[in-house]
């Protein structure tokens, strides 16, 4: 990826991209041919939003691609990924790790530490009764892990936290390209 870093970007952004020339896609509305991305710095507080031209992207790695990569054995988040992999791989869902686990699996740059949680994405374009039953089963398995597992379910309308989707709440917060919004849970389930 070749990108022009805005002059108002913090210095660490250029340093980070020089060391690890990878970014993560973020949720935002952009012009055609432009992708909203985020740069990860050395600390959790170092995150910076940019946009890049689609033509400058050299490689795309999806969470689904990362679900098949073997994680290192050095952190509880990787152990949790190994534990949930069999269930998720046997499910009908397209899924994969995101967050620090996904970033490390994609780039090889150590970002996972002993206190890292496991962030997951499950793609469920339509949340029908069968899908909801499988999501509840998955939620139970993720809740049994020794670390925090934060799972987002990507639907046709946006992403919602699996824990919230399974909570029985009447309204759910969905994350869209236009920002978060409250939606009626019944409207999400078809």
Automatic annotation (TrEMBL):
GO terms for molecular function: nucleotidyltransferase activity. Residues 8-63 form the Phosphoribosyl-dephospho-CoA transferase MdcG N-terminal domain. Keywords: Nucleotidyltransferase, Transferase. It comes from the Bacteria. Residues 72-185 form the Phosphoribosyl-dephospho-CoA transferase MdcG C-terminal domain. NCBIfam families: malonate_mdcG, PRK01293.1. This is Phosphoribosyl-dephospho-CoA transferase.
